[in-house]
Structures are given as C-alpha cells and as structure tokens.
C-alpha cells in the first residue's frame, strides 16, 4: 500500500540501496538500525552519504495523486523516479515565508496551503518519534506494545498538561483562521493526536488529517470487521498510572472483545483501522481541487506546501511533498515548498527552489503569532 499513510509502498533504487552506511560502512539495506544517531529536534538520522546518492531513490506514486487523476491503483506498484535535487535550498526566515501566506499586500487572496506535519512538530511537548534505536518491533493490532505505549505515555502527558493556546498547534490554528477562508489542508503522520486535539483551540477552519490514526483513540481489535461504533477516547488517566504496556488493555463495550489503538500498521488490511480510510478520502478530495487542477491559465494560484518537522526517513512526508511538486510541475502548475526544521533535514530533499527555515515548530508558532498580530 503506497501513498499517504500506506507505509508499505515505498521502495529504494539499486543505487541508493547499495550506498554505504556512514556509520558502519555496510551496504545501506544491510546496515544496523541503531548505527545512525537521531537528531533530537526532528528525529532524523544523521547520514554521511553524498546527498545525490541518498536522494536518487524510487518511491511509489502517492495514492491520493493517482486517485485524483482517476487512475487505477495498479500503478502504485510501479516506482516513480524523482529527479535528484540540484543546488542547495535557499535560506529564509519564518517571518519572510509567512507573509505571503496571509497575502498582507492585499493584491490577491491568500494562496491554497498544504501543511505537512512530522514528528518535529510535537518534539517540544516531549513526544518522541515512534521509531528509532532500540524500539520494539510489532504493530498496534497485537496490543499496545512497548513502542506504541511509549508514544501513548508521552502523548497523554502532553495532552493533559500545559496551556493549549500557547502550543504550536493552536498557534497554527489561529494563523489559518487569519487567512479568512482561504483553502487549506493539514496532514500529519504523527500518531500522538496532539494536532487533532489542539488545532481547534486556535480556531482552525479545518481539522488535521491524521493519516496513521491516533493513540488518543481506541477501537475494536476484530480483524476485518471491527465494531463500527467502537471508536472512543483512550482513558488518559489509565495511561498516566501505567508502568508497562501490559497495563494498558481495554475491552470493547459493544462485543466484549479486545480494544486496540486506532493506529494503522504495516499488516493491516483495508477496513481494519476505522476512520483512517475516510481521512485518506478527504485528502484526496483536496488533491483533486488543488494539487492536480490545470487549465486555468496563468491565473492558477501557486500551491504553498509548508513542511514542518519532517526528516528524510523512508516514510517521511518530505518524499510525498517532492512527488506533489514534480506532479504539479509536469502539469505546468506552480508549487512553493517551505521546509521548517532546525537542521537541514527535509530541505535537502528539494535542493534549489525550496525555502529552508532553520527553526523549530515552537519558533515557527511564535512567528505565526507575530504575523497574525500584524494583520
């Protein structure tokens, strides 16, 4: 399954696959998982390979792009070769990139905006990425294992502490509200549920599309035919009191069966994870309206893609954003990509033409407050 949230559809070309790991000198596909350190800010692995060699990889075409075109799903199995980036990205400040998104000059309405949120967007709230050295393998359908339990503990603590209106997500919501109805879509692969919980605090005109689901929701664990009315909030008080994953088990109120996190995993079949397919369809609807629309002539607005806290790991939304930019370029449509990350991860995937903002999500949120106050 490729595309947004599918996880299993990405693949690596022979050249990229044979590149040596910078830490253990083994071929990349044989490298140890724990040999590359993680950036504490964004969860990205540091890598010493040449950028062109690292990014010359084939990724499955995003499912939402193909469906928006009315294409069949078989092409998902074929690799989509994306060109290697050329030149370094351009540096910019957060204030510089936010002004056009509010159209402060008044000459035109704010442009359509696609916001892609990675693990760095939640880093300031103590939520660690659900991958990394020493993580337990497994999937959510087998119960709340140690890896998901760790994310669940972090998310529960973040969701029940602090001031919602002072966090990045609520500030993002207020910024989108200041765009006065301009088209926007927010998508995240984070499973911490914080974007969905706090965007409303800022009055966001749209909800976050949680492409992999959320640990803050539970559902019936019946494979293939879960109870449709079983989705309910995760009891955060139980999570806070737990000391191991085995203490976080609940029963379905409808059928009495075991509950699982409402999070997609690699071995899930269609229909196993409630609401996730509906989220995919909503993103595809946005894609049909803005990502692949053509024929409007030179007046067609440039799509702005704001990538926040995304690294370059294989399932990062950075790769999806690259595919979007390439697809629109082939259709003669403009795309402006802005990568916000304290390190250069993410922006390197685009090279020249991308604006790189060296800031954390928290710093971006403060810049959004300044921009809104200046409207």
Automatic annotation (TrEMBL):
One MF term in the entry's GO annotations: transferase activity
Domain of life (superkingdom): Eukaryota
Matches recorded under Gene3D superfamilies: SIR2/SIRT2 'Small Domain, TPP-binding domain
The protein's name: Deacetylase sirtuin-type domain-containing protein
Xref: SUPFAM superfamilies: DHS-like NAD/FAD-binding domain
Keyword tags: Transferase
Keyword Repressor: no
């Amino acid at each position: 399954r490729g595309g947004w949230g599918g996880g299993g559809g990405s693949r690596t070309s022979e050249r990229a696959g044979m590149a040596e790991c910078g830490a253990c000198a083994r071929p990349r596909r044989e490298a140890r998982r724990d040999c590359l350190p993680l950036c504490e800010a964004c969860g990205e692995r540091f890598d010493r390979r040449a950028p062109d060699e690292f990014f010359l990889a084939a990724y499955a075409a995003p499912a939402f792009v193909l469906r928006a075109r009315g294409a069949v799903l078989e092409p998902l199995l074929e690799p989509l070769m994306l060109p290697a980036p050329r030149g370094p990205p351009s540096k910019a400040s957060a204030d510089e990139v936010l002004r056009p998104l509010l159209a402060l000059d008044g000459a035109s309405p704010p442009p359509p905006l696609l916001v892609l949120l990675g693990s760095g967007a939640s880093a300031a709230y103590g939520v660690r990425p659900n991958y990394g050295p020493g993580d337990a393998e497994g999937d959510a359908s087998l119960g709340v294992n140690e890896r998901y339990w760790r994310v669940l503990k972090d998310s529960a603590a973040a969701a029940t502490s602090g001031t919602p209106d002072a966090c990045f997500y609520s500030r993002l919501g207020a910024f989108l509200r200041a765009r006065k109805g301009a088209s926007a879509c927010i998508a995240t692969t984070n499973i911490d549920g914080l974007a969905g919980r706090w965007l409303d605090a800022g009055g966001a005109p749209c909800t976050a599309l949680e492409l992999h689901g959320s640990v803050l929701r539970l559902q019936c664990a019946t494979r293939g035919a879960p109870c449709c009315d079983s989705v309910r909030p995760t009891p955060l008080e139980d999570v806070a009191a737990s000391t191991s994953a085995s203490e976080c088990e609940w029963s379905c109120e409808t059928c009495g069966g075991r509950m699982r996190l409402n999070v997609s995993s690699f071995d899930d079949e269609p229909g196993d994870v409630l609401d996730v397919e509906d989220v995919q369809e909503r993103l595809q609807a946005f894609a049909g309206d803005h990502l692949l629309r053509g024929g409007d002539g030179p007046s067609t607005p440039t799509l702005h893609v704001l990538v926040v806290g995304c690294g370059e790991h294989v399932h990062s939304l950075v790769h999806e954003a690259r595919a979007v930019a390439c697809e629109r370029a082939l259709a003669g449509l403009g795309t402006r990509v802005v990568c916000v990350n304290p390190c250069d991860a993410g922006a390197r995937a685009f090279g020249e033409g991308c604006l790189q903002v060296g800031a954390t999500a928290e710093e971006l949120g403060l810049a959004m407050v300044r921009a809104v106050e200046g409207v």
